[in-house]
């Protein structure tokens, strides 16, 4: 009996050491879409695993989340998102006291959408994560918020954020070198999601067939515009969304290469997801725009 009692006392002492005073627990953290999830994962690595709605991994514009996904967001203490003009479902979250909604687009300078089919929309382009400088600003904001809401782990968040910022800087240098040979080569996009990327790295964008914030709907007039622009600028490549059929774009020109490009990283996971996403995009640009022998 004495031996058993000693074991019980030893276990309770060990448990007291393992559990923070007052039953402290880390906040429940959620991301709305893959790129946000990647950046949170980099900052929160080893402390907390952010949740991600299953729909958020594959869809952004005009998404309707499943009830289970909305419940996942509603049960979180902190929700990081880009902008409710991008993830409109954020507006439908309940008003639970104590939850913190963090809009990351407030941390950067937003660009205006470029002309679509020769027409301007004057809407804001919200694909902000594709600019490494913007990603760095978002990492800093994520670190600040997590440290405020979870001071017990603030040191870990700061260390992770510093490492992520260094990796972003290094990644940007590598990508710049990869893209250097094809910077002047004209390209077009089905969906103009890459303005932040091509402006940062100095690529030669010609035209898009749909805006950065709208469902892709390409008309006969749009295809006619694409044919004219492709011929005039000697466009070598059209980037399309992997979820859409690319067959119609073969009508633009027999010489143009067609490449599926994913700005969300739908099939990417892990703490290095942001870097894999950016390098995948860079390699796709290089592969589609380079001439044989480059």
TrEMBL record:
Cited InterPro entries: Bact_metal-bind_prot9, ZnuA-like
One Pfam family this sequence matches: ZnuA
Record keywords: Ion transport, Signal, Transport, Zinc, Zinc transport
A molecular-function term among this protein's GO annotations: metal ion binding
SUPFAM superfamilies, A to Z: Helical backbone' metal receptor
Gene Ontology biological process: zinc ion transport
Record flagged with keyword Endoplasmic reticulum: no
Highest taxon of the lineage: Bacteria
Similarity field: Belongs to the bacterial solute-binding protein 9 family.
Protein name: High-affinity zinc uptake system protein ZnuA
Gene: znuA
């Amino acid at each position: 009996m004495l031996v058993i009692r000693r074991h019980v006392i030893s276990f309770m002492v060990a448990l007291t050491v393992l559990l923070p005073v007052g039953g402290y627990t880390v906040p429940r953290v959620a991301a709305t879409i893959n790129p946000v999830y990647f950046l949170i994962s980099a900052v929160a690595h080893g402390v907390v695993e952010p949740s991600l709605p299953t729909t958020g991994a594959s869809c952004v514009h005009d998404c309707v989340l499943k009830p289970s996904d909305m419940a996942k967001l509603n049960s979180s203490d902190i929700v990081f998102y880009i902008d409710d003009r991008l993830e409109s479902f954020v507006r439908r979250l309940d008003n639970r006291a104590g939850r913190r909604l963090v809009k990351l687009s407030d941390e950067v300078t937003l660009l205006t959408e470029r002309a679509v089919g020769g027409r301007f929309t004057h809407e804001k382009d919200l694909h902000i994560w594709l600019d490494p400088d913007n990603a760095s600003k978002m990492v800093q904001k994520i670190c600040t918020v997590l440290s405020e809401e979870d001071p017990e782990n603030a040191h870990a968040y700061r260390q992770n954020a510093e490492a992520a910022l260094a990796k972003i800087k290094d990644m940007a240098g590598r990508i710049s070198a990869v893209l250097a040979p094809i910077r002047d080569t004209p390209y077009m996009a089905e969906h103009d999601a890459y303005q932040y990327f091509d402006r940062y790295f100095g690529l030669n964008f010609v035209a898009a067939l749909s805006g950065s914030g709208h469902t892709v709907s390409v008309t006969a007039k749009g295809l006619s515009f694409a044919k004219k622009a492709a011929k005039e600028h000697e466009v070598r490549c059209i980037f399309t969304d992997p979820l859409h059929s690319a067959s119609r774009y073969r009508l633009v020109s027999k010489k143009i290469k067609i490449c599926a490009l994913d700005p969300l990283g739908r099939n990417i996971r892990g703490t290095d997801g942001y870097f894999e996403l950016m390098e995948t995009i860079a390699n796709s640009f290089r592969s589609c725009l380079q001439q044989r022998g480059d």
